[in-house]
Amino acid sequence: MVLEVLRGPEAEPAARRLAEAFGGEPVVVGERLVGEPGYRSRRLLFASGGEIILHDDAVAAVLLHLRPTSALTSGLHLPDWIDGVDDDATLDQLTTALEAPRHLAGFGSPYLALDGGYARLTFTEDRGWNDPGNLESITVTAEKPGLTCRPEDDDCPSCSDLLVRSSDPTGGFDVAATTASLTAALTAGLVTEDAHWVRLADLRPLHASGLMARVESQLTCTTCRRIICFALLQDSPPTFTYAVLNDARRRPLGAIPPVEQWGDTARIAEEREAMHYLDHEPGAWFLLEQQDVLYLQARYVISSMADDSALIRLDDSEREAYRTGGRDHVARLASRIHDGSPHREESPYHQRDLLQGSDGASYREAVTRAIVNHTWLAEQRRR
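Predicted structure:
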């Protein structure tokens, strides 16, 4: 019954039968326009614990809430919907009962591949998958989990109201007010900014300069993990969309021009004190400079499944070797760092790795902004 309603309209007999099975009339009905260009999200919550979410009148998800929520006094009785399990079903028991292979969307979202859809399982604090009583809900979708935003996140309390729509009857949204809304959310820690894209504070002045056909900032919600893609374009209206990581990183962005070409006096002065790109070897190292101090970011391998980068400040002897040996010296130093396993405490580069210290996050962001036009990802975005 649940699978047959997916992608169908609310008025279809299958959807009406499911609504009747959930108890008839919903006790809570919510609607909102999501993003711009937007789609209409409609949520029907039933007293039994069932819920139907529609996107532009097509069923996007069916939720089986098994525990009380702020809007529900009780949850569904799971044996009424899945044979062979009780209300305290575990991941292993559901896998067996549904005879469905299980997979992971990310690190904490197990789901089962069904015939005609997917069942994503939500557990308390995203753990204890085989602890009885930890299963909170089951979300059934036609879309494979992880490849699109979760339909229930349309109403995320942290990021769903950050877009400020225009009062103009023709639609659209207020760019200045939306920028202010996002800035406030960033300050409050509701979202984080991705330094691989245009800084939110730079978005409007860079767009106004006309130097780029398209400028975009990306911010990640700390609650639902959706990525907000806020773009200003020269030849079409601005856009505000939500995306998962794989889709967000594939969005286009040209090389960001030097601040001197578009920034005001204060922004140019700020840039003078920032870290700057000097040179790099693809996949191996970046050489950077900040106020006459040289830094080297070198990639190293932790295992066959993981790698990382170390950032060291060049000492006097290394600076002199660079002056006389150029990038050949940098390449040799990067190779020594790679072979020196900086993640290990006994490594001679462990204590020198600025990314390991208390200011590691700040250094990582500074490096990312400095090399924004020179990474492999930047090359892909320009294609």
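Summary: DSSP finds nine helices and 16 strands in the chain.
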